[in-house]
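Morning!

This is the sequence you dropped in the shared folder:
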Amino acid sequence: MFFDSHAHLDRRSFGDEVEAVVARAAEAGVVGIVAIGSGATGADMTEAVECARRHPGADGRGPPIRAAVGVHPHEADRAGPEAWETLARLVGEPEVVAVGETGLDFHYAFSSREGQVAAFRRQIGVATAAGLPLVVHCREAEAACLEVLRSVPLPDPPGVIHCFTSGAEAARAWRDMGFLLSIPGVVTFRNAEPLLDAVRSLPVDALLVETDSPYLAPVPFRGRRNEPAHVRHTVEAIAALKCLSVEDVARVTRVNAERLFGIAAEGASAPRLAYVIRDSLYVNMTNRCTLRCTFCGKHRRARGPGSDYTVKGHDLRVGRDPPVEAIVAAIEAEDPGRRSEVVFCGYGEPLLRLDDVRAIAGGLKAGRPGVRIRVNTDGLASLVHGRDVPAELAGLVDVVSVSLNAPDAATYARICPSRHGEAAFHAVCDFLRRAREVLPEVWATAVALPGLDVEACRRLAEATLGVRFRARPYDDVG
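The structure's back. Tokens below.
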């Protein structure tokens, strides 16, 4: 369930208890750990690799452990040829999934700034040559770290900012470079408001979680030795900030970590026909769309793990339209009666399969009369099918949410291009008007794209079309 992206599982930290610590992690639901081997000597790196070799994950002896190796910025001035030779050798080992932790720490003066920068640059080169991501340590040195990283070629993806505790502005700068941000137990502290603001501002697809064991134990263990079993408390804090379930945050951050570090996970590539986010059960009818929206992850280059056809950690790439029987079986497997609603959405336009949606919704209503059914749609079904689609959904659908996305036809055609041109916008407005007449609850939404007049969209929806309105966050699907 949980993936601890950064833990120091060495004898210096845990003595003879390392195996017991790993066992407790497994009991707490930890399904993966990256053990950090960074210091001034090759022995520091080798110990993490040996820990990973003892715990491949296939033998049932605790969660799979992988290793990151590097020269810590504190040790930059003391690392000699033996450390660099060991690093160069270990990055080729299968257990090693990242280079680090490396970076800059100007809070302490354990190594000179010049030495730290030189070691950082050298390790960026090692990581890039090896095709491994970086685990970046950055403390009171963000401007200098960014300067170094912007001046040299980086791996793809570039890596993760370990133990991120800064604010929203710094988070945006790192994310613009393609880095993920790893959130430590500090997120549970009362005095961590800049970090809390950053987490609120970011999509969970941009995050990892870590313990940084044995340091920075979360509340209620603050002040005591930390260990991977405590990572759940960090996940719980993020879930509360993001209005997501613990399962959502655990799943997304696990998938993010597995992708960043190139770790294959059983079942990770299986596409989902029915999937849960928060307490809603979503139904993935198709990947086909009427529109080619500029903000859609399917039609733009991903900025890192968690993009493209992945929504909140669920793989929604179904290829050909799945048969109705398979969709119904997937819905039943998730026990729709336990969910607050069933939502036809997925990563495509569900009403392209109008008759199938009606059949599945009818079956759900017949078997579970109290089930609440919502359809998320682009509002073009009546235009596409030449039918009065809102009327055909009456009695089957309780809520329809329509992507309005623009206050006028020209803006809509630019943001959501299609073969229908500006006529598509007028069709969406007509759909909303008709839906208001025949369906119990109707919403118009708009993605809050930079530069879009969201308030003009709101006025159109509420004052002109007579429906409710909700702005959807940009770059945060699901």
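Headline: DSSP finds 17 helices and 17 strands in the chain.

More detail when I'm at my desk.
O.
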